[in-house]
Amino acid sequence: MGAQSFWATPGGWTVLTVLQILAVMIWILLSLAFLLLADRKIWAGVQMRKGPNVVGPFGLLQSFADFGKFLLKEIVIPSGADKTVFLLAPLVAFTLGFGAWAVIPLAPGWVVSNINVGVLYLFAISSLGVYGIIMGGWASNSKYPFLGSLRSAAQMVSYEVSIGFVIVTVIILSGTLNLQQIVTQQSGGFWNWYVFGGPGGLTAKAMALVMVPMAWIFFISGLAETNRPPFDLPEAESELVAGYAVEYSSTPYLLFQIGEYANIVLICAMTTILFFGGWQAPIDFAFVHHWPATGQSFYGFMWFFLKVIFFFFLVAMAKAIVPRYRYDQLMRLGWKVFLPTSLVAVVAVAAWRVFGMQA
Amino acid sequence: MALQAIAFYLMAAVTLASGFAVVSARNPVHSVLFLISAFFSAAGLFVLMGAEFLAMLLVVVYVGAVAVLFLFVVMMLDVDFAALRQGFARYMPLGGLVAGALAVEMVVVSSTVATQGAARLNDNPMARGAGAAANVTNAEAIGRVLYTNYVYFFQAAGMVLLVAMIGAIVLTLRHKPGVRRQVIADQVARTPKSGMRVVSLKPGEGVSE
């Protein structure tokens, strides 16, 4: 009884929340270590190389070796740089990359903060990601970083628009901004996922015509939003050396890198939650419902994790097999293809929601 | 309640301090960064009031879009501050007058609103915010008001924005003759057949068109 009342007090709640945040962060950091390796391994595999294979069995500890190297190197600050902003930029990138995970439902009931405007929060945080890059590029006081950060700002602002509209289609279908509820609505089997039109029997499947392209647009816009290949123009090494990160070294560079990968995994998680049922299993096995709650949570978490890894695999494959876009092609795709398509989709989904859903 | 008060004063202080820093910072980029900090703490104040929808919108619209464009423009401008500060003494009285008038107006309006709000709270404790009574979320409550009572104003605001957007495009649109443009359709339609010709050559002979 004593323990129970402790968790209900403000102090206990704070301790509990801090522990939850730590658990989520450590899980993400650990996953990132291996996902980074997986990224390099997949890339290598497509090109028939071996990839990192020296540190640890199959190179499994490569990321940890890199981590140690980054930490032990000297932090070089260019003499013409704006020191405060220069050091603030990677911190902003890192913090935002992890801040968004606060509202991601990992499993039934597993979410640090179950707020009512979760989708908006995610959108807000991901739209802030551009600041780390702009600040870093400007504060470096050097040409290539500056050009890289300008490109990145234009690119992220452009693709945010289509990401926003795609998210709106899901919000209209689900009628809620709460991520936990969005996932719960997609229960029952993969045909109830929003990529196939969401729950609501056979008539809802008509919406798959709209939602499958929307999921596709969301994923591609996500690649552009996180500066991943084929949209990695801010750091196009053949043109800008390393873009906004040219002047960064050691720990600040590491923070940038971790923030970027956290954002990539976040986009994978958002795709999973909004379109592919979050922690719902593709087929709703009845026997799972008899398990204890903790078991069900772990079961859901497993599905969430698997789906996120699948999308990360797609991201890594895109890096390996798609050539980089030209800048005018990138802007054309964002403004002339994705934006009109997603706008029409919003109108279509809204019309269906008003006229077709009750039938 | 004490914790909320502390949070309020902290965020209000940060908002005011960053607002002051926006106008006093020497570097325009720093000004924009302070502006972002001010937006952010204002969003925090909204959350404290229970208006999380407005808070998120503030961050999405102002921090995520508007301030990025500010930063974009300011970073590329080379602002000469010596020239800007030259007329400072001359414009000071007028500027001070405008600022004073604005401050008085804001105090009057906010005190009126506060009195009305307090009276309504005393009248009916259930009317604490539109959302609290009917158990609807913030976003729903705003949407209901926006699309019923204020739908014409809402649409009018949208039209104003549309006109502003078209105006900006019309003002900046230039048709430059003689500029080579990328025609994506042509590029996509290109096939190996149309883009390349295989010629068999005998040694010692050149290609003749």
Please provide a brief summary of the model.
Chain A is an all-alpha fold. Chain A has 12 helices and no strands. Chain A folds into 2 domains: 72 residues; 279 residues, no CATH class.
Q: Biggest interface between protein chains, with counts per chain?
A: A-B, 27 and 26 residues
- Strand coverage percent of chain B: under 5%
Strand-and-helix sequence of chain B, N→C? HHHHHHHHHH
| Shape, principal axes of CA atoms of chain A | globular
- What portion of residues of chain B is helical? over 70%
Helix/sheet category of chain A: mainly alpha
Instruction: Look at the structure and give the mean pLDDT of chain A.
Output: 83
Give the percentage of residues in beta strands of chain A.
Answer: under 5%
Instruction: Work out the helix count of chain B.
Output: 10
Would you list the SSEs of chain A in sequence order as H and E? HHHHHHHHHHHH
Residue stretches of chain A low in confidence (pLDDT < 50, at least 5 long) are: none
Low-confidence stretches of chain B: 125-133
What does this structure look like?
- The complex is a heterodimer of chains A (359) and B (209).
- Chain A is built from twelve helices and no strands.
- By secondary structure, chain A is mostly helical.
- In chain A, helix 2 (10-46) packs parallel to helix 11, helix 4 packs antiparallel against helix 5 and helix 8 (208-225) runs antiparallel to helix 12 (327-355).
- The mean pLDDT of chain A is 83.
- Chain B has 209 residues and is mainly α.
- In chain B, 76% of the residues lie in helices and 0% in strands.
- Chain B is built from ten helices and no strands.
- In chain B, helix 1 packs antiparallel against helix 2 and helix 2 (28-48) runs antiparallel to helix 3 (52-76).
- The model of chain B is unreliable at 125-133 (pLDDT under 50).
- Chain A binds chain B through residues 10, 82, 85, 115-117, 120-121, 123-124, 127-128, 130-131, 134-135, 138, 146, 150, 153-154, 157, 160, 177, 328-329, 332, and chain B through 3, 27, 29-30, 33, 36, 52-53, 56-57, 59-60, 63-65, 68-69, 71-72, 75-76, 137-139, 182, 184.
